[in-house]
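the two lines:
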Amino acid sequence: MSYINKPKVAHPSLPTNTLGMTRRQYEGSMSTLCAGCGHDSVTAAIIEACWGLSMRPEQLVKLSGIGCSSKTTAYFVSGSHGFNSVHGRMPSIASGANAANRRLTYVGVSGDGDSLSIGIGQLVHAIRRNVNMLYLIENNGVYGLTKGQFSASADIGTKAKRGDVNSSPPIDPVLLALTLGATFVARSFSGDKAQLVPLIQAGLRHNGFALIDVLSPCVTFNDHEGSTKSYTFTREHYHPAVEADFVPRAEEIAVDYAAGESIPVSLHDGSRVILRKLDPTYDPTDRSAAYSYIETKLKKNEYVTGLIHIDETDSTEFHNLNRTAQAPLNGIPYEKLSPGSAALDKLMARYR
Amino acid sequence: MEPTDTSKSDYFHRVVDCQWACPAHTDVPEYIRLIAQGEFTAAYMVNRESNVFPGILGRVCDRPCEPACRRGRIEEKPVAICRLKRVASDHRDDITGLLPKAPREKNGKRIACIGAGPASLTVANDLLPMGYEVTIFEQYAVPGGLMRTNIPAFRLPANVLDEEIGYIVNMGADLRLNSPVNSMRRLLESEEFDAVFVGSGAPKGKELELPGRHDTERVHIGITWLESIAFGHVERVGERVLIIGVGNTAMDCCRSSLRLGAKDVKVMARKPRQFFKASDWELEDAEHENVAIVVNHAPKSFVTEGGQLKGMMFEKLQYDIENGDITATRSLGDVFFPCDDVILAIGQENAFPWIEQGIGLDLDKWNVPKVDKATFQSTLPQVFFGGDAAFGPKNIIWSVEHGHQAAISIHKFCHDEAVQERMPRGVTLSSRKMGMHEWAYKNEYNGVERRLVPHVGLVERFKKINIEVELGFTAEEAALEVQRCLNCDVQTVFAAKLCIECDACIDICPVDCLTITHNGSETELRSKLTAPATNRSQALYVSAPLPQTARVMVKDEDVCVHCGLCAERCPTAAWDMQKSTIHIPHAIDEEVSACPA
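prediction for all of em together
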């Protein structure tokens, strides 16, 4: 961590969004993570994405569990709502909050430990329930907060800082999400904001559960020779298959896309995602094809990145399935929320 | 773009905008830090090394450093560099023990300096400690030149002049007062001197030949009039005074008038305000004293009745201005302004009635001597020029720099070495890193606004001609003002081979100076940085290709606040904060072979 705070002074010609706000106004408090941590770049990408969407800070809810990754929600959009939950239990809080107020935008930030070890039971059910949120996993393959033990996403053969070699098979969050029927699955890298920022924007606007697995190197415990989640290894084994350009609602598509290589996808709120296929054989709308493609590449130690799978036609979204109230619960009159014992008796009578 | 070669001294020198803009290259950030530490004497000596007259310049410098100051591009107002110089001067201890001393044994070379102004005094200052015998000829009974005769005492008190001139004269200069040089030929023929330095200034005020000019004695030439005030020959002026011209001399004339009894003083300008030559702060000071500045009036004639000045006739003008240029002028008719005195402050020029033709000293088409821009040598190899005498009126800080450069030339000339071959500037860098996140400078950005210098009240200041109006910063205000300095000499130094492209520096930079991108032409790079780099006067730093992706690190120097967060957040210490020291050679640094017999 640094001794001084990031000064409030800004570049005099910093651009503003449609709310008249600069990117600096979407920052949070000063990061206390290690210098060079990938998570800080993910934070910067979230700031950039929220600024670009002209999101009102009070529209955003940021949720997290425990771990280095879970600290990062303090470092962006300080004017938003936040909940730092128990280790691995962020999906429950997110589901509850979502049920209570569907008008807000939810972003959960978690790590490979929080999501794939202690919290995996929570994660899989959040995917299954299709909770309307963006779920970011800052994935570095180690438990950074407890000095760098292998996490559940550590690859076979990767070397720890002290030399131990991992032999347990990893859980890949992308494959996991695909098997569970997630409707928005992406992978990216903290060192590639050009790819990550539009993915976050699309994920925030997706109607349903959006998972982005972000390879986010641990500069202190997992950035050495022999590590499969270091900056160098990630860059060498990085395979962008399909890039996503995010076009906000009411904006014209400015770029000319070659037919056949690009697939426009309209999102629920009127914004669009243009998928640009870098590998022409890849089809991001075909879940099972995507699964086998990722699996084959993973076996060759290649990280496929980009918007791996998207399905905007799916109708299993959480609010649809559960017929939640349109209005936030705090805006519904108390008498309606709690109709009293007479109403309860009436209800109970139906089951007699 | 090619990777930036920072080993050349100019790259880091240019980043220190104030030092780059200063003709004498005063190490501004260094002396501001010394003031912050309470080391006023050391701060004074850092100043003196380059600008020789910190007390004088801390009051009346034209301060080219301030418009250049990076702070002025981030907020509106630059650091009050000039007034901090005065703080160093006001609060210093006795420095006589720290001054260079002339050796007892002389080197046998004798130098004549003509005029005891800032240029000649700088030549003496540089050459005396090297064993030269320096004789200064001064036409008046006191030294100082235009600093004394043309700058009113309410801006620059006599005791400040006396003290700083004394430091030089007391090194052992042979100051000959009341000794005008009337003939260059005779001076050269005397063969008394190995070299002659002409620092006689630009003492001739420009005339305004209009009808009625010579029908009255109440029309005065500005600089001559100021000189008469300085020597006590003029003590009164009429109630209504018109000043013609709107440069800094005009400002001194109007403010002097108010102190000599004038009640209604108008400065008459031919053009609109954006074309004024006077410095903004001098205009502000004059207007604060209730001087009216009348724009768009061109003088036409002096109106007199029986030798009595009644006023002046002006032509009122209207201008069309496009992109800062006047494209058309229209007359709106004549206007009469009554007055008792007129002071002409429309410029000055150098004049050399005492330099004869045919002595080998070539003149140019404006009848001023041909002088080399780098060596200050004239066409007579043993005669050098500097200050306003060299290239016409500039200001004190330029005179000082001319003096330094002429001293180098004289030193080389006296040792039979080529005056053109001069020592280059150099730069040394040293890391400010003290620990993981500790730096040997205060890197926290302080948002405090520019402090205002307190002034003597508007009644009190007019009671006497020599009451200094500016009081100088109090210790408390100075302590705040110094924190506004961005320490631009603590440079961001990048080692491309250490970079792992984690983006930490880019994400933390408060002013979005940094970008990792694919290389391209300068125009291309400037358009695709994190924040647009539109200020082309500021350099782009481009690194060597980075190890992992062969992209480059680009830094736009324009608005970097030198907070060091890039270096603090860098996991591999690819960024470091290093203090640059720019070496500006003076005569004493030049190595010459032993003195020829």
